[in-house]
Amino acid sequence: MRRFTARQLQEYLEKVDTRPLLLDVREPWEYQICRLPDSRLVPMRQLPAAIEGLDPGSEIVVACHHGMRSLAVARYLEQAGFTNIINLDGGVAAWARDVDPTMPTY
What we know:
By secondary structure, this protein is α/β, with parallel strands linked by helices. The protein is built from five helices and five strands. It has one domain (2-98): Oxidized Rhodanese, domain 1, CATH 3.40.250.10. It has a five-stranded parallel beta sheet. Strand 2, helix 2 and strand 3 form a beta-alpha-beta unit.
């Protein structure tokens, strides 16, 4: 698993040819307040049922509010055979602070 800060992720997204799946594992009410552009919501508790719809070989960036839930999900995905996982350290809170100060926070 790789771990990116918000700024590292921003720079990475600007230069990659194929954009990774941005997997947001927060709750729907959190996602409604703020989210990374083009992210897909799969709440952490729903991941076991949704894992079959994810490609184990594709690059996946896992994000949550502060980076703890996403870290747990990233580890879970690795144990399930996913090989190209990135955790967003600091979560969307760090993204709002360091990359997009106009993003709503909670």
